[in-house]
Amino acid sequence: MNASRSPLTRSGPAPGEPRGDGVSPQDRLSIVLVDDHAIVRQGLRSILDREEDMHVVGEAATTAEARTALERLRPRIVLLDLKLGTGSDTEGLDLCSEITSGYPEVGVLVLTTFLDDAYVLEAVHRGAKGYVLKDVDTSELVSSIRTVACDGNAFDSRSASVMARSIRTTPNAPALTEREQRVLELLASGLSNRTVGTTLFISETTVKFHVRNIMRKLGASTRAEAVYEASKMGVI
Predict the structure, then answer these.
(1) Rounded CA separation 189/92 (Å)
(2) In angstroms, what CA-CA distances link 234 with 14, 94, 157, 173, 211?
(3) Which CATH number does 25-159 carry?
(4) How far apart are CA 111 and CA 116, in angstroms?
(5) Alpha-carbon gap, residue 188 to 165, rounded angstroms
(6) Could you report the per-residue pLDDT of 73-97, keeping only the tens digit for each?
(7) Helices of type H across 59-137
(8) CB of 128 closer than 8 Å to CB of 147
(9) Which of 21, 93, 4 is CA-nearest to residue 55?
(10) Residue 101, helix vs strand vs coil
(11) Banded model confidence at residue 173, pLDDT cuts 50, 70, 90
(12) Contact 229/216 with Cβ under 8 angstroms?
């Protein structure tokens, strides 16, 4: 795969300088783009920097550049492609693990061309909070970034279907209640707690209660990990 390489860059004003639109840089979601294609990064930057609450603070084309970006910029969000250059197909997944373990405050949103059950599940297992394909609608991508920034999980319709398909019946599954099973199915579809509550006609507080119980029973520390563990254990 031939791709243009570019060094880590920062656009826009320096930290602390106003942007002229009334929103200070510290109030924006700082984003680093990790993709080996310069044209993809340029397109994403032009889209995201138009959002008042977002600012692309840096780019990386390789794992090494990504490490430098994380250390220098400490972004809130990393948009991560799984295929970086001509190296291993798991390079992006390995980087995902590195980011989520070394920088737990950073939300990783996978943005890739790969729609494969194994990739989706492995990305979640490695700490990604969302998985969307590159042909996603702009508004859905922006919404996914905001969801991840709020510590939610974001999946487009196709990756959400992968998560849902991974949940199956087995006699060795942890003992979830019928309500917990239904909540888990909706979590696998990428719904927020509020939307789950609306769907099931229960309060958001009650949804959070069920989510905590699900995570405890599955030995998970996040919603996405709970769905992943459910896929391994065969819950529901």
Answers:
(1) 23
(2) 49, 25, 21, 6, 17
(3) 3.40.50.2300
(4) 13
(5) 9
(6) 999 999 999 888 766 667 899 999 9
(7) 63-73, 91-102, 117-125
(8) no
(9) 21
(10) helix
(11) low
(12) no
Q: How many residues does the chain have?
A: 236
The C-alpha atoms of residue 18 and residue 16 are separated, in whole angstroms, by 7
| Of residues 57, 44, 68, 50, the one with CA closest to residue 14 | 57
Place of tokens 């609306």: 198
CATH number, span 166-233 = 1.10.10.10
Q: What tokens does 101 get?
A: 């373990």
Q: Is 142 helix (H, G, I), strand (E, B) or coil?
A: helix
User: For residues 45 and 54, what is the distance between their CA atoms, to the nearest angstrom?
Assistant: 10
Backbone angles phi, psi at 184, to 5 degrees: -60, -40
**Tokens 């980087």 belong to residue:** 95
pLDDT single digits (tens) 91-137: 899 999 999 999 999 999 999 988 888 888 888 888 899 999 999 89
Domain ranges in the chain are 25-159, 166-233
